[in-house]
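Q: Could you fold this chain for me?
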Amino acid sequence: SLDFSEGASCRDLAGAEGHGPSKDPPGLTPFRETFESVFLDSTGWVNLAARMPTSVAETLSGCASRAASVLGSFLPAETKFEKLFLARQYFGMHHDHHIRVELSSGPGAAAFGGDLSLWADQERLVERVATMALGRRVLSAQCGPRPLRPQVVRKSDRAARLLVSRPELEDGGIDLFLRSNADLAHSAVDVGPANTEKELCRNFRSFWGERSQLRQFKDTRIAEAVIWSLDREKPHLLLLESLTVALQRNAKPPGGRISVSTRETALDFLLEASSAGEDKPGAIRAFDKLSRMLKSLDGLPLRIESVQVASSLFRRTEPMPLRRHDLCGARPAKDGKSYKSHVPVIECFAGLEGSRRWPRNPELQRKTLAAMALHAASTLERSFGIACIGTEDHVDILYEGYAFRLRLHSLGGPSGLSSDEVGLKVKHHAAISGLATRNPPYCAAVRLAKRWLGAQLLSPHFCQEAVELMVAEAFCNPSCLPPPGSHWSGFLRFLHNLASFPWDERAMYVDATRPEEVSVAEHREKVEALEASFARATGGGKAFLAAPHQADPERWAGGAGAAEACRSAARAASSSLRFLDQEMPSADNGFGRKVLAVFTPNLEFYDVLLRLHPASVPLWKYFACVSDAGASNRAEAVGESMRLQTVKNTAESGARAKLIVGENLAMEAVRRVQALLGDRALVGYDEFAGTTVGIAWNPAFFVPSREPREGEAGWVVPVRTGEGKAFVPNVLALMDEVCAGLRGFLSGVEYL
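A: Sure. Below is the predicted structure, expressed as structure tokens.
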């Protein structure tokens, strides 16, 4: 419509002053035929999205739609504003997978240097091939724009014109970002056209080459297909293999080569430690059999009506894998053979039928319940030959290679026997299990989050339910970003939420339910009640975390020093995000070694370091404990073969009697030290085989006081000041108490 070579201008569209445009806009049809994306200005003549690829337009449209859902959600107004305008978007957070495609051109490709349209065509080709190769496994594929080198202005002499150097790419590699379809990411078969569609079959074989094969499926259909090997814990490797084959065949420059890589493999060693040798189907079968046995027990005063499981091992959010143990009823112990000493437990709750014959005394009620549990254990041993270890609080049942920790509660008896904690754990297990079913990457993201918190020596301050809810916030709560579709993006979003959430100003509310279970109005009522509880809370050290199934906001985040632990975690998360944001875009091949810095604690934050003897830590060497690895031996620590401490079966002493069933003794000792110190210090430890305990003193603890606090008489010394007598803390006396609490574990103390 406008011939700019003849001197036409966009001003001609407006017409003379006071009059309308001299020409009517051409409509959308010519724009759609010319451009991938169309976004017209107010005149209808200029396409503002002329250089915008379709993938970017779809991403922009999705962000706008999700922003609208945030505005209409149950979140507080402050949280909505932060999510819409203040949240910093770090590298790769909009997508689930970051694939690096390196193109090296052949000898004749130098003639195309400086051709911007050719470079854009390369990026569109990679996007197109990725979309065709991955099919329904991905929701979108988008290439990031490649930056150009600064163009140098040259001038040969005074009379010559200024010349600009030819454009050159700063880096020839292409960053390909994928949004994963989590439901289909684990599909190991790419089904092509039916064998009757000759032309489509020819195109399919041309695209995949020798990887394509004719297959007959169960529904008797015969079609072209590509079969991939698959590790269900790492679907990103399947994407990488598919992309490598497709790009090598369809996008390799003439005479050049192409390479495809991803940074996600840098964290695979943590996931491998969590899933090696896992046998959850066997544990489910064993639990079903045990449940039927418990319900059929005769001779109990009250019949067991229900048996429910509520264990992070069952919902696969625990870094400890669910493995069979030979001494847990699987087979008899052999003389001279060594067995793993630590046995993880699966928590179960058995509900007794209602009765009015319970004693009125609460203490007698608890004793009666404990007696029933011991009676059930003896009946199992006598009737079925199942080994049981009974205590006043629970019964550990060793059955078919697994340890089930059974707790009894009354379904219709006195209120003291119908524990709220049992109902809370069962509801939490149901909510998290449902969330993991709807979002397959969730479990792997939680395991990474727990390993990261442990590596920052923050395990004592975040229970497993709290970590699961903090990771669930990225998957459940309304956000401008799509739900994570990979463990990598889920881990990044966890770090982002932890670093950006204002723990000192408000409570975190996580909607871990299905959308149809709780309405928006009910969510808003719960959020308002949560904010009121937070406003009534006085004093420091408070951190609130709640969900629809949880009534007490301090249940999982209200321990001693919880707020300070949240602040420490937020600082560490912010530092980790900045490091990843800087290192991920670079083409350095040493990223796998660098990413270990994210799982390394800042020991300079602590004032005292207590070293534990490795032989006293039952999980030592089971995990790749990067928190204890120094700069020189970190790679060796990660590469060690992972094994548990072992016990040997002999004729004089059976190995089963030496088992540590479900108890992390070092972690319990550290928690006792934190309870001893209270708000005087923050105690850090890595529960996953850590051998370092850090103590960071609270500066307010060293302020002189007029009178010692109650119970501190032996931990202070009197001093003379200008204002009279005062008391200051006696750190050495306090450290004597700390070392006594760690007796049997401690091997050395360092004062920094």
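A (continued): Residues 190 and 226 are 5 Å apart (CA to CA).
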